[in-house]
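User: Predict the complex with flavin-adenine dinucleotide.
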Amino acid sequence: MTTRPIAIVGAGEAGTRAAIALRDHGYGGPLILIGEELHPPYERPPLSKAALTAEAEPSPSAIADAYRLADLRVERLAGARVTAIDRAEHRLVTSEHGGIDYERLLLATGARARQLRAPGGEHAILLRTYDEALALRRLLRPGARVVVVGGGFIGLELAASARERGASVVVLEAAPRILTRGVPADIAEKIAARHRRAGVEIVAGCAISYIARDGGAFSVALSDGRIFAADCVIAGVGAAPEVELAAAAGLAIDNGIAVNGRLQSSDPDIFAAGDCCSFPHALYDGRRVRLEAWRNAQDQGAFVARALIGASEDYAVTPWFWSDQYDLHLQISGLVDAGATVISRDLGEGAVLNFHLAEDGRLVAASAFGPIGKIAKDARVAEMLIAKRAKPDPAYLAAGERKLKALLAA
Ligand code: FAD
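Assistant: Here is the predicted structure with flavin-adenine dinucleotide placed in the model:
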């Protein structure tokens, strides 16, 4: 009798890390990694940064190349979309390779960039894949007029990259300020100021009426009558979890594929990890969250590998996210809640570290912004304090001259 493989759908960050970790943890059985993209699994974070600003056209930054996957005896099916899951038969239906049986299944299908919902929104370029980054790169010429819709992380990274390429840039944001999701107002203001210094025009609190195209040129019209002419319109208006396959198979969905603390879906033989899933976070009283962050996809990939072969603990890694814009760096650990008390520590040279304390004094999040050399160490300590569920003295946190590391021993 042949053993059925563990099958992984989605050869991105979470899926590929899971395949590698399965071998690290001693799983010796058959392993199939199925992905619809043709490139070897690659990192997405550079797509809005170095892939756009590098002098020469870059290659994808590989997570694992074909040799590594072959070494690990991972059968990789590239350019193959899984179109259905037959749960009763434990079989996948694929676009190119017919049916594939599985013993256990990991869905690591990621997320897709949301379309801009406005008349003419289809003219706005979206960015999720390496091929899309290459196409965008060609448009970011010196002097090109670029309108970025969305003042979130991706939109702002795109704005910074476009400026570095010599384009003129306008950022349009619907909310009253940029970065309303998860970034405190003082840091958002510092980031906005850095963009303005670089020559980016930020228009917040605006609504787009329509985008019109005339040959290779576009007009982006706002509801207040202003019109911005553009050679290129880019939308960074969030991402939606890729759940179609799971939903069609009848799996529970709740802002992503709903999994339990072990990242197991409502079908005990199907797990999910990365951007596509929502899970109860053990560090936050089981609050259900979905994270769109590189390190979460890595961590969950490694974690779910153990769950796929029987481990039973719950996922409790501190969420962590970073963004690079120009020469500055933003890091957010934990979950930033609007109601938290924020204590700021001045790290010098304009760098700041904010501690977010819950009502009971527990450190639940930390946000840092500034030159990497100024923030990295303290932000790491803050992350460790969050993991320890520490309740540090607010006065100590605010006192920049007092060593943060000492709190770890407390
Ligand atoms: P993905 O990497 O999206 O992989 C999912 C894969 O599944 C895709 O290749 C998709 O084609 C495939 N797939 C989906 N459905 C099917 C199917 N039915 N059949 C076959 N294949 C399928 N995070 C940070 O923390 N910091 C950053 O600075 C940062 N920058 C980013 C910049 C950009 C431009 C983007 C797009 C993301 C960035 N991220 C960043 C987020 C980070 O890259 C993601 O959180 C991470 O890639 C998620 O990994 P994943 O494996 O869940 O999904």
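The mean pLDDT is 96.
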